[in-house]
Structures are given as structure tokens and as C-alpha cells.
Design goal:
The chain contains four helices and seven strands. The chain is α+β, with helices and mostly antiparallel strands.
């Protein structure tokens, strides 16, 4: 049975690969877990568009990761505005998606929110440091200043 992998499967292939597997393996394991879909022309077109989006986000190599780290360091502290109560406390906390949007707004590179790791919950105003894992060997520390907006 020809299937298209929707996730990386150890020993079989990466996301977007078209592979031929036994019918039982596909029906009983891969398809119910959402790891694959049946290969049709429509599904192949959909996977091609997903693959293009993933390629745009993926950091290709170590040199590219170093360039991105330098761009992040050149930005300096990134300012992020969040809603605060009249007492000056944040409503909720700052998420990785908020940080990625603030970096993009400040003129930084387009990052994936899964690259950002917080050193704890950001629930207060002021300066905080977050880590951005650009490559297994390259990490950038980005300073985020959380400012209040009522």
C-alpha cells in the first residue's frame, strides 16, 4: 500500500515521503495514529504545499543558524507589550508565540515558536531572557522587555 508519511517514522522515512508498506502495517498502525495518509493525487499536492512551508521554516545548516543568531543578537532587547491590570500585573503569561511575533515585529528573522524555550513562566513586567534553539549546536539568548498596556 502506498502511503504518505505525515510525521517522521523511525526506520521508514521523514514527513512527506511516499513509501510502500504492507497493508496491515498501514491500516493497523500508521493510519490510526495519524502518522500517514493514503497516497492519492490530492494528498500528494497537499503534502507538497506542507513541505514547502516546512522548508521555509527549517534552518538548513549550521552556517545559516549562526547568521540567524547574529541577527538576533544585533536586535538587542525586544520589546513586547502585554495587557496589565490597574495594579500593574499581567493578565496570564507571555507565550513563545508572543515572543516570536515580537521578534518578527522588531525586524528579526522568522522563527518557529518551538525554537523558543522559556527559562520559566513570564508573568511580570521587566526584562527576561529566553533561549532560541536555532540548531542543535547553536543557541541564542534573546532579551525580552515586557511592557504594560492597559
Amino acid at each position: 500500500m502506498k502511503i504518505i508519511l505525515t510525521a517522521d517514522v523511525s526506520g521508514l522515512g521523514e514527513s512527506g515521503d511516499i513509501v510502500d508498506v504492507k497493508d496491515g502495517y498501514a491500516r493497523n498502525y500508521l493510519l490510526p495514529r495519524g502518522l500517514a495518509i493514503v497516497a492519492t493525487k490530492g494528498a500528494q499536492k497537499q503534502i507538497e504545499t506542507i513541505r514547502r512551508v516546512q522548508e521555509a521554516r527549517r534552518v538548513r545548516n549550521l552556517e545559516h543558524a549562526r547568521e540567524l543568531r547574529q541577527q538576533l543578537l544585533d536586535l538587542g532587547p525586544v520589546t513586547l507589550t502585554a495587557k496589565v491590570s490597574p495594579q500593574g500585573k499581567l493578565f496570564g503569561s507571555v507565550t513563545t508565540g508572543d515572543i516570536v511575533a515580537a521578534v518578527r515585529k522588531a525586524g528579526g528573522p522568522n522563527l518557529d515558536k518551538r525554537m523558543v524555550s522559556l527559562r520559566g513562566h513570564i508573568k511580570s513586567l521587566g526584562k527576561h531572557v529566553v533561549d532560541v534553539q536555532l540548531h542543535p549546536d547553536v543557541t541564542a539568548a534573546v532579551s525580552v522587555r515586557v511592557a504594560g498596556e492597559q
